[in-house]
Amino acid sequence: MRRFVVVVSLLAVCFGLVVQPAVAGPPAADRAGHVRVMTRNLYVGADIFRVFDAQTPDEVPIVVAGILQTVFDTDFPERSAALADEIGRYRPALVGLQEVSLIRVQSPGDFLIGNPQPAETELFDYLDILLAQLAARGLDYQVAGVVENADVELPYLAGFSGGLPLLDDVRLTDRDVILARGDVDTSNVLAQSYSVNFIVPFGATTIDFLRGFVAVDATVRNRTVRFVNTHLEVGSLVPVIQQAQTAELLTELAGEELPVILVGDFNSSPEDAFPAPYAQLAASGYTDTWLRRRGRPEDGATCCFTETLDDPTATLTERIDLVWARTGATHPPFLRGIGPVRATVVGEALRDRTDGGLWASDHAGVVTGLVLRFPK
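The chain above was modelled as a monomer; its predicted structure follows.
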């Protein structure tokens, strides 16, 4: 039996992918084949679906102004410091970010005359803000891939002049981003929108809530993996859209020969029945790495704090921010199992809040450590 175990172990080292406990600490502690990844929803800063609370077209600018005010109140520049501290604490090789917002304004707005000129005056670029915070901490992270999702512009009430309303426009561009640590080489970028999305008629136009995914080949200590980041549609809106997006993603990755690490905000939990995203992924050969983690039992909940991020008693009740792993399509069947991992939820403790008392996001994040062993 001992000889059998030794032989199988040697085969695993030479040919397969085995996931073992990660070593905490800086990348200097990484062993050959070790990769630590993170998924983090940055949160735009308000519930943008509040726009549907408007009962008439005249109410839209008022509702949008309230949403924009909440974005100011939840203060991403302040929150970004806490997010950068998290990345600095774990120094993941790869980071999948969702809701990486770019917010632009136009004054006066022209939405009501057909929006001939899109808003271009930058208010907040969440990616630039976070990168500046990382650089200020001496952390070397580069943008490895970006997919642009929804790009929505609406009027908002900016004030009054002579008793008449002043209407400006605000434009939200949503992105998913992959960051790579400076010592990680990336290539073969794929940024793709889903073909099925949530589209809502809005007066004479529509609001297209596009979603997508971004993927790269990432080489960590001479071992290469396909790293994929996505943000699926909210299932409670139109479940069939969320399900179609998952099926499209799985089809795209079906023939991938490299091991795949798939992270993101899936808006789906282990409690969801087929054909919800979680069940589709589990049925397609992907391993929910949280279920293989070592350490004391934890529920791994990541969602969601209150919209305003200022309630210290808020609790997380759903596990929808996930890290999945799958060996390459050509790996021998007996080497396709996923072993135990080290994983932790970040940003969920009171001590993780900003100095101003805000949670870093309405989600918590997940950091997962894997050891990949397969031929170079």
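Residues 265 and 321 are 5 Å apart (CA to CA).
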